[in-house]
Write a structure and sequence with these properties.
The protein is α/β, with parallel strands linked by helices. The protein is built from 21 helices and 25 strands.
Length: about 575
């Protein structure tokens, strides 16, 4: 006999079924009593200087940029930006082990309130590598490789609807840090499994290949075939369907969804750059359209919502040293910010907070071509070279079709960028490609920026300076703050302390064994716990507890994930799982 129990969250049942047997009802009372005690300790008064805690929170992140992109975008648009009225301060960006952060560590900081090590997602740092200037609120022993509750998870525990949007694979660093607890940002399959089992109401972005088993494929509504990359044999599209999600793959499909839980993945990998979308994949929605639809759906929850929106590819324009890529993706992001602002203005219960996670490429207006004549730069000197650019540098490389001959490069760049390269230009681009630029599109963008535009760059990597802070709606923030304080403020607004969220979602499991373990990051081992009258099993990366008493198997849907950290071999489970197991 097999019984399945869906335990309601302490604040809001959100449609989950109650238990039927008297024994289980008694167990549930004990479970809720423990959970309520934890929650009662967690609730704090939100001492806002302007108003009560917001019902809705929208976080807007243009990955990888600084204030210079605002200036270039304003010139390019020819009008004020949505973020112009929102600028209220600066955000410090260093991570636990470096002055210059990586995206995974940055996102973990503003999703959890703790700095961490490069490539870690939703985990405490490898404390042996910490900068001497980094002092954690937890002791090092407690924080080391510990799974960390995120503001998205806390919002869900408080009964709010939650959503994630990105223009990259949804498993990329920034969205992943809000919904997974993974030791390496490159483990997309594990990240996707965390996301699927983390009860997110709305997910929009790319990366469908990590839902589909390797050797299988998915045919889209518009006829493309997406091959799977999962190595564990799971079809997570089936899991989403079993959990009651709609799945859509195009902007038309997204537009048709009016309510309910939905995943919309619009490419097998990353979505297209905003400038390239109409040329290569016109079926994809814009970031503003995704934001509008997500707010439309999430705002139907009477308890409010939390939404994170990432303009993922602003960063990639910076890495490329590609000014047209960076500025057009920032303008697309700014349009999404306007959507959130408009909702906040109409709603009066919404806080919008935006910030880049770090700068990238060190883009600035002015380069060595203008060393001694910068006071003579006209608007056309700045914008003229960008006017003929109809694709990103990556889009131009696609148009080469694999033919890197001098004649084809000159012709293709003329057609899609409106710039007439010379033979010496092509030779220099090819030399850069063979050198530290590493790819044709990086070399093309870097050379053209230096030679034909007034845009300067410092590197192809991230930068370590402070970045702008933008706030709108209720409880605006002023001044220079650490990136960890963004999460702290959101936890406070949600009425749940950081410590209470961590203690509720992640408790060390003791006295267990692991079945079907495998050293690869994509394995699905099962944690086994021997109880006085039964045996408990929990699969890593999922939210399910099964207890077999020899006669029946009782299955419980947990309010959090079962996480194993490879560096320490430690398994962490929700407090709820411990409470349930204590009744057997």
């Amino acid at each position: 006999m097999h019984m399945r129990y869906r335990l309601p969250y302490a604040k809001n049942c959100k449609g989950r079924e109650s238990l039927v047997s008297s024994r289980r009802n008694e167990m549930l009372k004990k479970t809720f009593a423990a959970s309520a005690a934890v929650l009662a300790m967690a609730v704090t008064t939100f001492a806002a200087p302007q108003s009560a805690a917001p019902k809705n929170i929208v976080v807007m992140i243009p990955d990888g940029c600084g204030p210079s992109i605002m200036t270039l975008a304003r010139w390019k648009k020819g009008a004020p930006l949505a973020v112009d009225q929102m600028t209220t301060g600066l955000v410090k960006t260093d991570m636990a082990n470096s002055v210059i952060t990586g995206s995974a560590a940055a996102a973990t900081a503003f999703a959890t309130s703790f700095k961490t090590t490069a490539r870690y997602l939703g985990l405490g740092p490898d404390t042996s590598r910490n900068l001497t200037t980094y002092e954690a609120e937890y002791s090092n022993a407690d924080l080391d490789h510990r799974p960390l509750a995120t503001v998205l998870e806390a919002a869900r525990l408080q009964g709010k609807a939650v959503g994630l949007i990105s223009t990259s694979r949804i498993t990329h660093a920034t969205p992943a840090a809000y919904a997974s607890h993974i030791q390496d940002r490159g483990w997309d399959n594990d990240i996707m499994e965390h996301m699927v089992h983390n009860d997110i109401d709305v997910v929009f972005g790319g990366g469908a290949r990590h839902l589909i088993p390797s050797g299988s494929s998915y045919t889209t509504s518009f006829g493309d075939v997406w091959d799977g990359r999962r190595t564990d044999g799971q079809n997570l599209m089936d899991v989403l369907a079993d959990k009651g999600y709609k799945f859509v793959d195009s902007k038309d499909g997204m537009a048709s969804v009016l309510s309910g839980k939905v995943w919309g993945l619009f490419d097998d990998s990353h979505m297209d750059a905003d400038l390239d979308r109409n040329e290569f994949h016109p079926t994809q929605p814009t970031i503003a359209e995704m934001t509008q639809k997500a707010i439309e759906i999430l705002s139907q929850d009477p308890d409010g919502f939390f939404l994170m929106v990432e303009g993922s590819q602003v960063d990639w324009g910076g890495h490329n040293n590609d000014p047209i890529y960076m500025v057009t993706d920032f303008l697309a992001f700014d349009s999404a910010v306007q959507v959130a602002k408009d909702f906040a203005d109409a709603n009066n219960e919404t806080s919008v907070i935006g910030f880049p996670d770090h700068n990238c490429g060190g883009m600035d207006i002015g380069n060595r071509s203008w060393n001694w004549s910068y006071t003579g730069i006209k608007v056309d000197d700045l914008l003229g070279p960008l006017a003929g650019m109809k694709l990103t540098s990556g889009g131009v490389e696609k148009k080469l079709g694999g033919d890197y001959s001098e004649a084809n490069i000159i012709s293709t760049v003329q057609t899609w960028w409106g710039i007439t390269l010379t033979s010496p230009d092509v030779a220099e681009i090819q030399a850069l490609q063979a050198g530290d630029a590493g790819s044709f599109n990086y070399a093309l963008a870097r050379y053209v920026s230096k030679t034909y535009t007034g845009i300067g760059w410092t590197s192809h990597g991230h930068n370590g300076e402070d970045v702008p802070l933008w706030t709108w709606g209720t409880n605006r923030v002023l001044g220079t703050i650490d990136n960890t304080k963004i999460a702290s403020m959101i936890f406070n607004a949600l009425g749940m302390s950081v410590n209470a969220a961590n203690n509720r979602l992640f408790r060390k499991l003791t006295d267990y064994t692991i079945e079907d373990d495998d050293p690869t990051e994509y394995s699905n081992p099962t944690v086994v716990v021997s109880l006085p009258t039964a045996t408990a099993r929990m699969e890593i990366n999922r939210d399910v507890l099964e207890i077999d008493n020899g006669t029946t198997v009782d299955t419980y849907d947990l309010e959090g994930l079962v996480v194993k950290v490879p560096a320490t071999e430690q398994v962490w489970v929700p407090q709820q799982a411990l409470d349930i197991m204590a009744t057997y």
